Amino acid sequence: DAKTTQPTSMDCAEGRAANLPCNHSTISGNEYVYWYRQIHSQGPQYIIHGLKNNETNEMASLIITEDRKSSTLILPHATLRDTAVYYCIARGSARQLTFGSGTQLTVLP
Amino acid sequence: NAGVTQTPKFRVLKTGQSMTLLCAQDMNHEYMYWYRQDPGMGLRLIHYSVGEGTTAKGEVPDGYNVSRLKKQNFLLGLESAAPSQTSVYFCASSYDSYNEQFFGPGTRLTVL
Q1: pLDDT above 60: residue B40
Q2: What is the C-alpha to C-alpha distance for residues B57 and B60, in angstroms, rounded to an integer?
Q3: Do B106 and A100 lie within an 8 Å CB cutoff?
């Protein structure tokens, strides 16, 4: 699995878009980018994943650069309940997810 | 549809005691996983299973054993607990290796 780098922490105003960056410069062609989040000691929650194209679901959008060396998770209208640690994971055929330290997102009222 | 459940939610052990953590899923998933999470760190994979009757080692398997006798259950055993095994244990399941993993609420284990 490719190594990923994320900022340690970020703040976002409630109602504004939260843009969480992730660098994965060593990602290989068959590795997907996954995003999970963990809200205060609960089990991690899947958000979204993608390979090459941008993806959108009811929770978020995932923007992957054309060279696939970085990506951005976008929460379009952050709420206080989005305060969590967000994990970016690059994974290929390996069965295990490798969680790093993630980004602590704090949504401010 | 309960998703992934874990039993117990909390447990305190003395060094040398043994225990089994139970994970159950009702989504008919083939893949199941056990992770541990230490304070301020991400999750680390202990063992996983790709189907009934199969198990495999993850990143940190030492001191743990697992069994998958039924498709819906994945058991994690500690034969002789050590203080270093104080952690929060999460179970997860997935349809296959590429799709999302669904996580349980966790078991908080303290070994004195």
Answers
A1: yes
A2: 8
A3: no
Asked if B10 has any chain A CB less than 8 Å from its own CB, the reply is no
Residue type, A94: A
Average pLDDT over all residues of chain B = 95
3-state secondary structure of B83: helix
| Distance in angstroms (rounded) separating the CA atoms of residues B81 and B58 | 19
Q: Hunting for tokens 């994970």 — which residue is that? A: B23
Q: Are A55 and A49 a contacting pair, CB within 8 Å?
A: yes
Beta strands A103-108 and A9-13 are parallel
Task: Report pLDDT for A93.
Answer: 58
pLDDT higher than 70, residue B73: yes
The bridge status of strand B10-13 relative to strand B107-111 is parallel
Query: Which percentage of chain A shows pLDDT scores above 90?
Result: 76
| Residues A39/A31, Cβ–Cβ less than 8 Å | no
d(CA A100, CA B25): 26
B15: which 2 tokens? 């060094």
Chain B residues whose beta carbon lies within 8 Å of the beta carbon of residue A87: 42
Considering only the beta carbons, identify the residue of A32, A95, A99 that sits closest to B43: A99
A45-64 mean pLDDT:
95
Neighbours of A51 (CB within 10 A): 14
